[in-house]
Specification:
Helix content is about 40%, strand content about 15%. It has helices at about 35-45, 60-70, 85-90, 95-100, 135-175, 200-205, 210-220, 245-250, 260-270, 275-280, 315-320; strands spanning about 25, 50-55, 75-80, 105-110, 180-185, 225-230, 280-290, 300-305. The protein has a single domain (about 5-320), classed as NAD(P)-binding Rossmann-like Domain (Rossmann fold). It contains 11 helices and 8 strands.
Length: about 325
Amino acid sequence: MAYTAPTESFRFDEFRAGVEGKRVLITGAGKDGGIGQAFALSTGLNGAESVGVHFHRSYEDGFDLVDRLRNEGVRAFPVQADVTNLRDLWAIRSYVIDQMGGLPPNLVICNSGLTESGYNLGRTLRQVEGESTSLRRARVRQHFIDNLDQSRLVLDTKVDGFLASTHLWAGEAVYHDEPTQFVYVSSRQAVDPGPSVPGYALSNWAVLQLPKVLKVNLGRSADLVSCFTLLLPFVRTGMTNEYADNERVFGRWQSRMLEPCEMAEAFMALLARPASETDGAMYELIVNAAEGDAAAGIELIWNRLSVNLDEQPVDWSVESPLRFD
């Protein structure tokens, strides 16, 4: 597939502070027109020292992106690995460090992810007129298995992949005594699930916990690492383009889909903020209609999201607690 991104739309000089001089690794950056590609372009074209373009199966698109970045004077290199295969992931470690001049990445954007073709969790299939009981049983069973196979792959890629990538590169940050920033890409469906993508919604919810889990586990070394999470709305990519005109899918969040370059500019504005300000936070990208008529377009703002757990004692249990010697 040929490279099709509008390269010049990813230059954001006013927001260079977050990436200038950084060694950047983006997982899931190969797909043409994808969110990962947008991250690679916006970091590479705005002053990053080096950019690792990771992909698994999208190798043709990935190499096209690397070539384009190199043509723009960016020190870019390809990284092929299955983030759910731990041996595969470990094998890229020394290669990435070598490509980055002997040091690990100090900005890691965990973006790998898949979506589902869609099914309604817990809803049985409609009966087919004239279908025998045994045939229906077989059809429902196969549908059940196929659906959960999809969800398992989505969960493995997002949860296992992000966890393993964090474990690998946080470990290198501690070993090299090198301050490193992690950005985790989640979705607004983590907190406001849409229909038909249960694995996607669950995996993106799990991503929200990674910054806290990482900090707890790093202990005394926690100050070496800063991290935040993005909850993105619908962005036009190969996975979402079929829904671009379907307001039933995304209309409750935004009047139109974002283009990758629009999302990227909002991301760069956030990344340019001090790490001490963004560390540990969850940021939700809000798409509002601009004031005026429809031709006025949209406005993007970031909301800082808090997930508050409210603990309340259960009266009957307090009144009759279980006691043991």
